[in-house]
Structures are given as C-alpha cells and as structure tokens.
Write a sequence for this structure.
C-alpha cells in the first residue's frame, strides 16, 4: 500500500470513528438537556396545582397531562420522575412517550396523588431539528479537512517521491553521481544526506571492485601469455614426438586456464552490472547470424540445422552480452550433440528456443545452470552459468526442458 | 619493418621481440610510458605494439602522442583487459587493431601483416608461395595463374598459413583466428580438417602441390615439400 494511501485511509477511519462518537454523544447530551428542562417545568406545574388546591380546593384534571386524585395512602411520597408510554386515545391509539412526575402530598389534611405528565413527542422533533444540522456541519468539516490534508500530504511528500524515483533509476555502472533534490523538510534532507553518503561510498567500493577484477585479470593474463608464447616457440623446435606431445598438452592446459579465467571474470562483470547500454536486439536473427558463422561446426558432425525464424523476438539488452548468450547456447547445442544429430532454432514473438539431440535422458533443469557442473570433460562448466547470469541481468529467463529426445533451452521475458 | 614494442613485462617483451626479429623485423623496446613517449617523438616506426596497462601511465594516452608525432605507424593495442570500453576507446583514438592477452605469435604476425597491408597504399598487394598467390585486395587466389574459388573462411585460413609458413599452427590457434575467442570446442576440431581438405582439394585440382602437413594431432604446418 502506498504511503499516502495508508495515511489517508488511517485519517478516514479516524474521522469516521470520531463522527460516530461525537454524534452519539451529541444526541444524548441534547436529549438529557431537554429532559432536565421538562422536569423543571413539571415541577413548576406541580407547585401551581398544589397552590390552586390549597387556595381554592378545586381539583383540576386534564388527562393525561394532569391527573390529581385523593390518595389512599396516608403518607407523603417525594417527587419521582419516570419515562412512560401512554396510548393516545384522541388520535391514533399509538403509544407516545411521556415524562411523568409523581408525588403524594398532604394539603390541608388531605393526601393527594399528583401525576403530571409532559409529552416528549415535540422534544424528539426538536432534538432532530437541532441534531441533524449539527451532524451535517460536522460531516462537511470532516470531509473538507480530509481533502485539505490529502493535498498537503501530497505537496509535502513530493520531493521525497522524486528522490525515490531518482534512487530507483540509479545504477552504479553509470558515470553520473546520484543527484537528490534538496528539501526544506529537515528529515527528508537528513535522509538525502545519508543516502548520498552511502551511494558515494558504495560507488567508490564498486569502482575499486571493478578495478580489482581488471587488475586480477591483468596479473593472471600476463604470465599466461608468457607461458603460452614460450610453449608456442617450443612447438616450433624440431623435437621428438613424445616431447612435442607434452608441450602441446601443456599448451592446451594454458588455453583452458585462460578460458576459465575469462569466463569467471565475465561472470563477475555481469554480476556487477558492468554492462550498461541496452539496445533493441532480435534474438532470432542473432541466432541466424551465428548459425551461418558456425555452419562448418554443424557440418563437421553432420548435424541438421532447422531454422524457424519468421517471427522476431526483440529484447532490450547489451549487444555484447546478447552475442555471448546466443554463442554459448549454440556452442552448447553443438558440443553436446551427436553425429547426424539435429538442432532446431525457433523464434516466436515472445520467446526463442534452441533444441538439440544428444544425451538420451533429461538433465536436471536447475543443476545445469550452476557453475562448474559439467557433462563431459570438454566444457569448463561455465557456459550455461553465464547464460543464466546474462538472462538474469537483462530481464530475461532461460528454461530447460526435455521432450521427445530433444534438449530445449527457451529464452523468454522474465518477470520484472 | 621497424617495430616498437611497448610492454612492461620484460619476459613478454623479449619473447615477442625474439620472434619478430626471427621474422626479419627490426625491433625496438620500451618497457614504460616515459621511454615509449621519448621513442615515439624521436623515431619513425611502421608498427607500434602497445600494451595499454603500463606502470607509469595509461597506454591510451600514447595513442594520442603517436597520432601527433608518428602518423605513419600502425598501432596494435595489446591489453590484458578484455574490456569493451578500452577496445572502443583505443580504436576511436586511432588504433588499427586490438588484441587481448594471452595472444599467440602466429596471430600477432597475421595482425601485423594485415595492418601493414592496409597501410600500404601503393605497390602490389600479393602474398605468394611457390605456385600459390593471393591478391589481398581482390581476394583472388591463383595457382600458376589458374584462379580457384575459396569460401571466405577457406580464404582466411590459406592466408593464415601463407603468412605463418614454416610454423607449427595449433588447432586452437587456427580455430581462434577463424572464429574468434568465442569458439570453444576443445573436443572437436574436425571442422578445421573439413576446411583444410577443401583447400587441399581445390589447390590440387588447379595443379598445385599440397604444402599442408598434419602434426601428431596437434596442429598443422604449411611448408615447402
């Protein structure tokens, strides 16, 4: 959930709860005030009636509002208020709410039961007349403050959002430094400082790492070159066959070491994302190009090459990496093939696949992409690891499958 | 031809210069940036082999100096760094070719000859060996004046043999020369054999001799019989 959406949602929930609580409280407070008022009025009426009886002896009656009777009890009872319902006999026989004052008093030696009532129907109307506008005003105030708050939030977080985008798009492989927008909010400014400091440090480390890999490569390549140059010169000498074979074996090992060194360096470089500069590349046509280049390799094993490259599978990636990707897959299909085997390259708009005949049984689809997992001694076990690493770094996915005696590698767009 | 080798590894420097002297070149050596810079400003060279990883300066800077003082020289950059950046910068600055360590002497020789050929604007551009002659401009191959038709790879392979005649060329070196670094079929170099047989057949049918000798399964040698 987005930060602002979260804040807005929280705010909305808070406002709703507040609105409910305030309206309930408001309703009951107003109602309580009305009741108090009514009780006071009833008390005053009771005093008037008592005075009238005392002075004129006339017993007044107006059911259900005033109900005075001579009491059978011979003792005074204090004022009690009750809420009761009385059927309206005049109109529609419905129960209507009343507040009742009941009291037994002694006037000139006679005991009277006083029941004075007041209808609450008007008060309920009054309550609504006051409460509803209040509720409406509250609601509008809340809605207004919600939107104003939302707007403020958006302006306050704007710089933060922009900086977040800048950080997202930043890559250590690029030459420019990370440029964060200055903010007038202290916390954001502190965050910017920390992020800038960290990226600078990481950028320096990254550069050092890059230099280290290159230096390591240099340090290894030079002795390798010297060994291979000397061995090459020894091969020119007219030596007995046994010695020549030993020199040649040493020469081959140096070559192997060189390939291994280069492959490991390549893997490190891909992992370090040192291949920037993506271009639109049609993987299908790249396969076609490489297949033409390596035609002799297929011919030497009498391998039949089937090309179905009508559709373009265009991806955005570094051209050098794309060439290595296609090269390694093709070499893989050629190397692990058999005499009179087949290679089939199929390009569709969403994937390109290369299938080859070879080993009778399926291979482990995850193991084969691991480093130094070899099938046969001729490879260094890094070719497919490089394929996988290139795919990972270029937003692609490589999947192995085995069907009808064909080992297939499918290159498709990965989930990003 | 006069060649300047700029390389900080003395062992490597000697190995390369020994070989080039054997190939009848005159070699001068510079083991650091400063010496190289001096030599470039005083003498003229046909080819400068330049290792760009020098202890006292970036070899790429030397390319600029060469372009100012020594325009005639062809530049072959040698680098341990298989980095595309360096390669592009090097070629942009005016280097003629770029080689990654470890390289082979036969490959170096081919590259030097190719750069020299490109730089020679006059004279005949033919490479010959007995009855075989190759016109490097038109890519025509003649055996005793009879034209034969070779595929592009066969042509490249024959050129490689003629330039490195009398040398043992390993299968690895040939494969790398024809298909570059990416070729990786250590178990199967039969395709070279296929190409070779085609060349042999074509030369023979035009009345030429077979000069290609097979050496104990390790490589080939092009030499007079």
């Amino acid at each position: 959930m987005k930060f602002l959406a979260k804040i807005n949602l929280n705010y909305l929930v808070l406002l709703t709860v507040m609105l409910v609580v305030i309206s309930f409280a408001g309703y009951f407070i107003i109602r309580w005030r009305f009741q108090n008022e009514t009780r006071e009025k009833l008390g005053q009426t009771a005093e008037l009636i008592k005075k009238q009886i005392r002075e004129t002896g006339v017993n007044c009656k107006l059911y259900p509002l005033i109900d005075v009777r001579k009491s059978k009890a011979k003792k005074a009872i204090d004022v009690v208020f009750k809420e009761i319902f009385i059927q309206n006999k005049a109109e529609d026989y419905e129960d209507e709410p009343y507040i009742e004052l009941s009291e037994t008093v002694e006037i000139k030696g006679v005991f009277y039961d006083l029941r004075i009532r007041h209808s609450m129907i008007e008060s309920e109307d009054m309550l609504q007349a006051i409460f509803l506008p209040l509720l409406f005003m509250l609601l509008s105030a809340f809605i207004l403050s919600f939107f104003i708050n939302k707007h403020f939030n958006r302006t306050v977080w704007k710089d933060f959002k922009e900086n977040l985008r800048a950080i997202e798009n930043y890559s250590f492989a690029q030459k420019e430094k990370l440029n964060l927008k200055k903010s007038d909010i202290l916390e954001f400014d502190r965050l910017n400082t920390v992020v800038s400091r960290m990226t600078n440090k990481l950028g320096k480390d990254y550069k050092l790492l890059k230099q280290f890999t290159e230096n390591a490569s240099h340090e290894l390549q030079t002795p390798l070159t010297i060994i291979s140059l000397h061995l090459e010169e020894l091969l020119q000498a007219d030596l007995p066959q046994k010695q020549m074979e030993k020199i040649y074996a040493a020469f081959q090992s140096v070559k192997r070491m060189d390939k291994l060194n280069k492959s490991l360096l390549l893997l490190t470089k891909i992992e370090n994302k040192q291949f920037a500069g993506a271009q639109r590349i049609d993987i299908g046509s790249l396969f076609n190009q490489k297949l033409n280049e390596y035609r002799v390799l297929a011919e030497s094993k009498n391998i039949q090459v089937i090309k179905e490259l009508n559709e373009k599978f265009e991806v955005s990636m570094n051209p050098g990496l794309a060439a290595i990707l296609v090269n390694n897959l093709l070499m893989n299909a050629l190397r692990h093939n058999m005499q009179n085997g087949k290679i089939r390259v199929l390009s569709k708009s969403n994937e390109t696949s290369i299938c080859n005949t070879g080993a009778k049984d399926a291979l482990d689809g995850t193991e084969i992409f691991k480093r130094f997992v070899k099938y046969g001694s001729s490879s260094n076990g890094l070719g497919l690891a490089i394929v996988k690493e290139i795919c990972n770094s270029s937003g692609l996915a490589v999947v192995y499958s085995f069907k009808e005696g064909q080992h297939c590698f499918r290159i498709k767009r990965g989930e990003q | 031809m006069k060649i300047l080798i700029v390389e900080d590894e003395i062992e490597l420097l000697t190995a390369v210069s020994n070989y080039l002297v054997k190939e009848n070149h005159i070699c001068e050596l510079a083991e650091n940036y400063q010496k190289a810079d001096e030599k470039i400003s005083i003498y003229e060279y046909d080819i400068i082999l330049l290792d760009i990883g020098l202890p006292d300066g970036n070899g790429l800077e030397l390319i600029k100096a060469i372009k100012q003082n020594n325009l005639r020289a062809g530049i072959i950059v040698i680098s341990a760094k298989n980095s595309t950046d360096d390669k592009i910068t090097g070629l942009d600055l005016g280097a003629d070719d770029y080689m990654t360590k470890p390289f082979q002497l036969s490959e170096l020789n081919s590259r030097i000859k190719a750069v020299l050929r490109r730089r020679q604007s006059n004279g005949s551009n033919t490479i010959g060996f007995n009855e075989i002659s190759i016109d490097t401009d038109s890519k025509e191959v003649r055996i005793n004046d009879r034209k034969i038709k070779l595929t592009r790879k066969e042509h490249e392979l024959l050129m490689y043999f003629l330039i490195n005649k009398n040398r043992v060329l390993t299968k690895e070196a040939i494969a790398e020369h024809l298909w570059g670094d990416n070729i990786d079929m250590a178990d199967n170099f039969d395709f070279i054999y296929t190409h070779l047989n085609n060349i042999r057949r074509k030369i023979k049918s035009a009345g030429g001799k077979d000069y290609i000798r097979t050496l104990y399964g390790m490589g080939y040698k092009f030499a007079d019989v």
